[in-house]
Amino acid sequence: MIPGFGLTLGVSLVYLCLIALIPLSMVGLKAFDLGWTGIRAIALDPRTLHALAVSFGTALAAATINVVFGALLAWIPVRYRFPGRRILDALVDLPFALPTAVAGISLAALYAPNGWIGGLLTPLGIKIAYTRLGIVVALIFIGLPFVVRTVPLHVEILYNEYNFVAAFAVASLLALVTLALKAVLETRGANASTTPGH
User: Fold this and answer.
1) How far is CA 169 from the centre of its chain?
2) Which of 15, 90, 121, 175 has its CA 20 to 30 A from that of 127?
3) Are 129 and 115 in contact (CB under 8 A)?
4) Closest residue by Cα to residue 93 from 24, 146, 150
C-alpha cells in the first residue's frame, strides 16, 4: 500500500462531502419538502421552461461552433508550421488562465455598447452583452480550449494513418499502372515477334 494513502483518501472524502455532497443533498431535501405537486409546478413554470430553453439552446449553438472551429484550430498547428503558431497556442489557453469571474467581467466589458468590440457592433444594430448571443460568445470562449486540447492527439493519429493510406494508395496505383504498361508492352512485343517479316 502507498504510504499516506489512507490519510489522503480520508481528507479527500471529507473535503468532497463538505464541499459537494452535503450541500447537494440539502438542495434535494429542500426540494422534497415542496412535495411532488410543488416540484411539478416549478418544473412546468414558463420561466423555468424558458430558462432551460435558453440554457440548452445556447449550449447547443456554442458546442456546434466549438466543434467546427475547435477542430480547425487543432488541425492547423498539427498539420502546418507557420510564424505565430506559439502565440495562437497561448491564446487558446487564455480561458484556462483566467478565473471565471474575470472572464465574465472582461467579456461583458468588451462586448458592452461602450466596449472595444461592442462599440464597433452597436452602430450595426448588433447587441451582444446581456443577450443570448452574449451567452453563446461566453460559452465558446470557455469551451473552445477543451476542444482544441482534446483533438490534436487524435488529429496526429488520423493524420499519420491517412498519410500511410494515401502512400499505400499511390503505391498501389503506380503498381497497377506499371503492370498495365508491362502487359501492353509485352502484348505489343509478342505481336511484333509473331508478325511476318520480323
Assistant:
1) 31
2) 90
3) yes
4) 146
